[in-house]
């Protein structure tokens, strides 16, 4: 019985079409064809490729964008998929640019093993959708607030003075959303108030939308990686971005150094003459770099260990930028562990029942631990992570139980 010929396919992806090229495992070109980006088109493309032999691997451009649908179809048909980079510009200048050429280039890149990556997990798409919607809402909210302030700058004097007295943006938005423009007679005042009221109501709607999307992001990130979400300073937004960058797929990250380079926090030499120093790489995923930057700022502001470390580095003569670079590199190392080897986290659900069973008030517990009662309340409800405080709290509660017995 003759065994099937082993086939490699390369795929050049677009919005409405994909171009598939088939070659043998020795690099011999067989054929290429174009298909529609529909379930039927994907089925026809796979059937066409299998007519030449056994398809054992496929190289697809843009597995998280135009190639996402075909990637899923290939995986559903038990075909191993790798993501290939687009041909570099030097090769395109030498060989030309067309869909068939790009498809064959992708197939040959698979054989050469050059510039390959494992496609991101489908969960990444869900996180990305929620994160895009949330960030869009935040951006629109900021724009609406600025528009209100700009309108009030040029508003009639009495209107400007009336709404200047509100100390916060929240209070100003609440007042404008409930104003009644029709009670005024001046047409300019009516027009400005009508515009401000519409913008204020838009802000309130966006506030509710941001809250709902944040809650959904929190639920998804806690389900996918509770240890990452529980890390100090990591919120739903930053956790989602790090999971998107990693692809919720641990096989994509070869090493901790590779993740640091991917996130743009790998130190590179920046020395000249007598000055010997390093700076962070400006390459990689800038959104992931921004997530690490925000985590570093939160820890520098609120985490005692981070504050002590920063103080030591500043005393040693380092600048704030250098300290921030060191912090981001260290945080990347910690985040890599959470992304590749998720560990179980401490469950705080026993704290409140234990306290209530002993008739201990929040105030008494907070006074003993030297924190505010709201901190204990948030800890008991799982709204705040602080493992060392939770361990001390649990030990104290157990001690009280033994003393009572």
From TrEMBL:
- Say if the entry is tagged with keyword Coiled coil: yes
State the protein's name.
IS110 family transposase
- Source species of the chain: Mycolicibacterium rhodesiae (Mycobacterium rhodesiae)
An example of a Gene Ontology BP annotation on this entry?
DNA transposition
Give the GO molecular function terms: DNA binding; transposase activity
| Coiled-coil region | 196-223
Highest taxon of the lineage: Bacteria
Task: Outline the extent of the Transposase IS116/IS110/IS902 C-terminal domain.
Answer: 228-309
Question: What InterPro entries does the record point to?
Answer: Transp_IS110-like_N, Transpos_IS110, Transposase_20
The chain positions of domain Transposase IS110-like N-terminal read: 9-153
UniProt keywords (A-Z) are: Coiled coil
